[in-house]
Structure formats: C-alpha cells, structure tokens
Amino acid sequence: MSSDLEISALAINVTIPQALRWTDTRRGETFMLTTLNVRLLPDGRLAAKAYGRPVNGGRGAYVSFPVPDEPELTALVAEAADRAGGLWAAHRGLG
Q1: Distance in angstroms (rounded) separating the CA atoms of residues 29 and 32
Q2: Distances (CA, A) of 31 to 40, 52, 63, 66
Q3: What mean pLDDT do residues 36-40 have?
Q4: CA within 20 to 30 Å of 81's CA: 1, 43, 45, 48, which one?
Q5: Does residue 63 contact residue 51 with C-beta atoms inside 8 Å?
Q6: Over the stretch 5-27, which tens digit does the pLDDT of each residue have?
Q7: What is the 3-state secondary structure (H, E, C) of 20-67?
Q8: Which residues are CB-contacts of 54 (< 8 A; sequence separation ≥ 6)?
Q9: Any bridge partners for residue 37, and if so which?
Q10: What are phi and psi of 33, to 5 degrees?
Q11: 18-to-4, 32, 39, 41, 64 alpha-carbon distances in Å
C-alpha cells in the first residue's frame, strides 16, 4: 500500500441524543439541532458542525451551526470519533 495515498476527507454523522439537543436561530427561523457532522482534520484535530430541522416544520435550509463548547457535547464528539475509528479499522472490504 502506498504511503503517499491522499485522503481528502474523513467525516461521520452522529445523531445527537435527545437530552443534548438544543435550538439555534438563523435568518429568523429556529432550528432544533439533531445531527453532528464530525470531520478529522489533516493535523489530527476534530471539527464539528450541527445540523437540524426548523422547529415550525418544513424542510428549511441546510444550514450549519456551531457546536457549543459544553463538556457533554465535547465528550460526544470524542466518543463518536473513537467509535468510528474502530469501525473503520475493522472494515471487511467492499461488498
């Protein structure tokens, strides 16, 4: 296997447990944040954005929100990254 193989992205989507969900407002519309998109950056750090649906229903725009700096959410991101790493390491190939 080539050590110069370039990986352009490693990202996972994580469902936010009900107890940790929050709302945020964008363009006058309130969203309930239900999903995190966690990316592994080239330097090994993690980055996360939150996504959700408008509280009043409808599709709404696909808009990202910052993840609050709260210990429970930080732990969720780290746990999800660890779990995803284990799943990737144990892959069984295509098909």
Answers
A1: 10
A2: 25, 6, 9, 12
A3: 96
A4: 1
A5: yes
A6: 888 889 999 999 999 999 999 88
A7: HCEEEEECCEEEEEEEEEEEECCCCCEEEEEEEEECCCCCCCCCCEEC
A8: 29, 30, 31, 32, 60
A9: 13, 49
A10: -85, 120
A11: 41, 10, 22, 27, 19
d(CA 80, CA 64): 19
As a whole number of angstroms, the distance between CA 9 and CA 93 comes to: 19
Threshold 0.90, pTM exceeds: no
Give the model's pLDDT for residue 2.
65
CA dihedral 80→84→87→93, nearest 10 degrees, is 160
- Write out the H or E segment, with its range, that includes residue 85: helix 71-89
